[in-house]
Amino acid sequence: MPKKSDVPERIIRAAVALFSRQGYHGTSTRDIARLADVSEVTVYRYFEHKEDIFWSALASCFTTIKPRLSLLNPSPGLDSPEIILPRVLSLLIDAATFSPDMVRMIAVAFVEVRGRAEEACREHLGPLFTAITRYLETNIERGKIRNLNPAIMTAGIALTVFAQPELSTFIEGCRLSKLDSRQAVEAYTAFWLGALVPVAQERSSSATSEEALSA
């Protein structure tokens, strides 16, 4: 028998495994109890409703992201896109690689459970996407990143990691889905730096224009 202090965690782990594989409606509290090695009565001692179990399980999926948000706060001299973008992509790739259930749980939340799905995702993903967007906005103002919509750029960067590996399987000759984490960070970083960072000629031209205006 599991220790009493371990029971809620075991229930949540079991719920994540089952909800992410079988969906919300395909998973019963009896299934969760069986996988957690507790009785169904015990499950209801900790969670009043099945939906409460789901939201707790979804929240647990975001635990790998929150501690690393500080990595997106640029330090003096270390705020260039060449440094920050790999950090952003590495964080997202790690989340997708080591917490694959998170993406599936988000999909289940929006497709099957709804209700608090948007609120829950905003609570847990909002700080990450806000940090990325603000960083992009700041560097657009500094001329280090092209003047494009930062919210769309943020969504594009996230989708690159979460959706692209699966979609790439339909593209003949595309091998990105087979890259390991390090290779993926390198490939995505090269793409996004090429897409977002002005080339040296553009920077030089911009600098010349600013000097002419200030003269």
TrEMBL record:
The keyword 4Fe-4S does not apply. Residues 28-47 bind DNA. It holds the Pfam family TetR_N. The keyword DNA-binding applies. Keywords: DNA-binding. It comes from the Bacteria. Residues 5-65 form the HTH tetR-type domain. PANTHER family: HTH-TYPE TRANSCRIPTIONAL REGULATOR RUTR, HTH-TYPE TRANSCRIPTIONAL REGULATOR UIDR. This is TetR/AcrR family transcriptional regulator. It comes from Telmatobacter sp. DSM 110680.
